[in-house]
């Protein structure tokens, strides 16, 4: 009977292990999100993802094989046990498998935990109910602008919309503090995506047509048939709704779906870094894993800037990949912009004194939006640098391992 018990024990434990591992590798359990090289945990190794993807693709037949192996031993122990305790042990293990199967596939799957809007409403400012001090991801195309509150898309993780006649996929990962807008068009055809899990604490989506997994922070296909491809990123900006609406008076605004009122309420303090969750709260000190940084990407050359420093100095002058950069913060201390300091053949250098932003070359006065409002350059505008993001330091350095850190001058 010891041998028979092993016949039962091995397949039931393997079935439980398969279910647990299918979510362990792609959800934020202790140790699950790091690279396999313990000496370099931020190395973006794909081995863990490949294991997770293989399990995901083959879970059905793995279950079938396990159940077939379990069938006869289960019959022996549940129907015709030689000892009463055999039936109890077998019953408990079968019940445990049933609980694990339900929890994994109904409660722990990412797309069951974070649902898409049931009733999506995008309205003009005249009908808007979102407070003006809430942070939004703003996107404008072909004369149509839309604001997506972080409090809302932070729960949904993605919202599909049409802006300026083109489909867009607005995404946000609260654990990385990454907001990105992508075109959902893959190889000439708009696809559908579902939240499947996490990679290095970053949201990961699965496309419907091929089952490929895509990383939210970069739009890269990391495992699956389309591995190596990238979603087309669309230039978006993060700021308060008030500031966005000042720039785009005719903007539309995504409204809260009443079906998720409790979930949105739990996100009310996330905007300002006051979340209580271990994975989403902010480190107030600089250059800690959960510290805020502004990451700038220019043609693959990346640099990170300390949010605390920018709040103090209000502006930063620097050069990224040969392009002179101006980072400027709004008077509200949460909205920011990134601009090229080139003005024709001239490179401007900026200073912030007496609450006024001026350039040293012409002494013209500028707004934080890169607009000149007084002086010889009045009416001129700086060109935006589109790939500038606020996010957690651990996220930026994970997906930009060669990034430079700006040091105070």
TrEMBL record:
<keyword id="KW-0812">Transmembrane</keyword>
<dbReference type="InterPro" id="IPR021516">
    <property type="entry name" value="DUF3179"/>
</dbReference>
<keyword id="KW-1133">Transmembrane helix</keyword>
<feature type="transmembrane region" description="Helical">
    <location>
        <begin position="85"/>
        <end position="102"/>
    </location>
</feature>
<keyword id="KW-0472">Membrane</keyword>
<feature type="transmembrane region" description="Helical">
    <location>
        <begin position="59"/>
        <end position="78"/>
    </location>
</feature>
<protein>
    <recommendedName>
        <fullName>DUF3179 domain-containing protein</fullName>
    </recommendedName>
</protein>
<feature type="transmembrane region" description="Helical">
    <location>
        <begin position="7"/>
        <end position="27"/>
    </location>
</feature>
<dbReference type="Pfam" id="PF11376">
    <property type="entry name" value="DUF3179"/>
</dbReference>
């Amino acid at each position: 009977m010891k041998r028979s018990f092993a016949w039962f024990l091995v397949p039931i434990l393997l079935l439980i292990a398969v279910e647990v591992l299918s979510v362990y590798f792609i959800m934020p359990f202790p140790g699950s999100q790091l690279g396999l090289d313990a000496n370099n945990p931020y190395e973006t190794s794909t081995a863990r993802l490949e294991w997770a993807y293989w399990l995901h693709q083959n879970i059905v037949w793995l279950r079938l094989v396990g159940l077939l192996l379990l069938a006869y031993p289960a019959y022996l122990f549940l129907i015709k046990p030689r000892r009463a305790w055999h039936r109890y042990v077998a019953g408990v293990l079968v019940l445990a498998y049933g609980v694990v199967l339900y929890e994994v596939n109904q409660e722990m799957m990412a797309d069951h935990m974070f649902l898409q809007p049931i009733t999506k409403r995008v309205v003009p400012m005249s009908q808007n109910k979102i407070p003006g001090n809430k942070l939004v991801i703003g996107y404008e195309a072909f004369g149509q602008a839309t604001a997506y509150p972080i409090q809302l898309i932070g729960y949904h993780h993605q919202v599909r919309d049409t802006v300026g006649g083109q489909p867009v996929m607005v995404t946000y990962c609260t654990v990385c503090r990454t907001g990105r807008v992508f075109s959902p068009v893959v190889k000439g055809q708009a696809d559908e995506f579902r939240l499947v899990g996490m990679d290095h604490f970053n949201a990961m989506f699965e496309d419907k047509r091929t089952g490929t997994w895509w990383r939210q922070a970069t739009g890269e296909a990391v495992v699956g048939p389309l591995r190596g491809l990238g979603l087309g990123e669309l230039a978006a900006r993060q700021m308060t709704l008030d500031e966005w609406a000042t720039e785009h008076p005719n903007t539309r605004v995504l409204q809260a779906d009443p079906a998720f009122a409790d979930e949105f309420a739990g996100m009310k303090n996330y905007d300002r870094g006051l979340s209580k969750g271990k994975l989403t709260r902010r480190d107030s000190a600089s250059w800690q894993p959960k510290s805020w940084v502004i990451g700038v990407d220019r043609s693959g050359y990346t640099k990170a800037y300390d949010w605390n420093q920018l709040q103090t100095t209000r502006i930063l002058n620097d050069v990224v990949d040969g392009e002179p950069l101006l980072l400027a913060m709004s008077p509200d201390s949460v909205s920011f912009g990134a601009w090229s300091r080139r003005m024709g053949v001239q490179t401007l250098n900026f200073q912030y004194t007496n609450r006024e932003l001026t350039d040293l070359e012409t002494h013209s006065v500028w707004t934080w939006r890169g607009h000149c409002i007084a002086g010889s350059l009045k009416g001129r505008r700086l060109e935006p640098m589109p790939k500038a993001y606020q996010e957690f330091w651990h996220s930026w350095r994970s997906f930009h391992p060669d990034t430079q850190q700006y040091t105070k001058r």
